[in-house]
Write the structure tokens for this entry.
Amino acid sequence: MYIVVGLINKNLKQNLKTQKIMFSKETYKARREQLRKDVGHGLIIIQGNHEASCNYPDNTYWFRQDSTFLYFFGLKREDLVGVLDCDSGKDYLFANDYDIDDIIWTGPLPSVKELAASVGVENSGDLGALQTLCTKTIGEARKIHYLPPYRADNTRQMSVLLGLKYDAVCRYASMELIKACVKQRSIKSQEEISEIEKAIATAYNMHVGAMKMAMPGRYEYELAGFMEGEAWKGNGPVSFPVIMTIHGETLHNHGHNNKLIEGRMLVMDAGCETAMNYCSDITRSVPVGGHFNDRQRAIYEIVLAANMEAIRVTRPGITYQEVHTAASRILAEGYKGLGILKGSVDDIVANGAHSLLMPHGLGHMMGLDVHDMENYGQINVGYDDETRPSDQFGLGSLRCGRRLQPGFVITDEPGCYFIPALIDKWHAEGTNKDFINFDELEKWKDFGGIRIEDDVLVTDNGCRVLGKPIPKTVAEIEATMNA
Ligand code: GLY
Ligand code: MN
Ligand code: MN
């Protein structure tokens, strides 16, 4: 479907081709029908996003539609609200139509009724009609389901629609709706997987191009800028601010001011969105200049082995906590070999001593959000009644720990980070001192960090790393950088 521009072109009697930016209306109708069935009763309100001002009202951030709204309604116009009535089976789309004062600036745009029809929604109205429907539903004592808003303007809108205090809005969000959305969105369809693979194809260009640029004298911002450009060449923004740093020990380092110097590892964690907003999230770590030195190779091979171990064991039925632990054992074994850790691998992992060098989890769900559905509350997405988050340092940061099912798309992103402040703290406190050679560790405090990240689909009997393989072994990276 070639929605927004397609409709304009019809109005203008032109015949321009545009890129496909939505699935067919049947996809959205089927998703909504399933949601109504799973929630079972009451009215479901799904808010789209609004424009957000950056530094003055009319200078807005790049508009990003809400992912739940995209999933069930597919439309990217701002200020839309979708409603599903589980009792009557009716779906609605609400927004105020544009008037001529808007159209002067935006060009002709479809009406709310036309937008609704394009995704198989039969009922539409303005925001006054939405208020009337909400007030009527409250009067009937029927339940109104909504998701916890993550933006102030949507919290305010919900507070007005339902007559709730602003601070109470999140508290009354519907757990039934959250669970139904998680159930559906966790399992990616074939058409969603194709979109994700498109996002990874663009990430391939981002990463391979940046690898070749990672030479001494360049600045991080040149490579980060190149990646942003490649993302837009794939017709989407980056899926989160590019991490491009010779200080990879800072996990989400968003500064890009450093000059690349020989001897540093460069951590590049970046992905993009497709025109339909499906994401990629890839990390590659490369030696500035294109040749791993002995220390870099030693750490890199350990992290790579952990990444590969996760791929080896990921399959339906295993929990991602177990996959995290399997990868952790490889890390622990590797650090023992270097003399950084000591004791048995079982004891190291049971006590979380290896987490000093990887204080984050192995991965997270990915889809329409790079951390998929995180706005529903991480525990509702990554855990369930059976699998609860650990309270151990490191493992406790695992965003998804639950039992895997075919159709899950999850990241596999082990890393190794020598964080001087954390090393000093554990040393001073004696944390896990039976398993850590702090004297040996001193020699690594200037190393920086390494992370390797792939996007993985859980299949019927194992898993598949999605997309065209991006250089990952020492030999592949050196060959790419020196080609
Ligand atoms: N890009 C952030 C992450 O890997 O989770
Ligand atoms: Mn990442
Ligand atoms: Mn990630």
User: Anything to note?
Assistant: The chain is about 40% helix and 10% strand. Residues 240, 269, 281, 364, 413, 453 surround glycine (ligand 1) (CB under 6 Å). The first helix runs from residue 3 to 12. The longest strand covers residues 265-270.
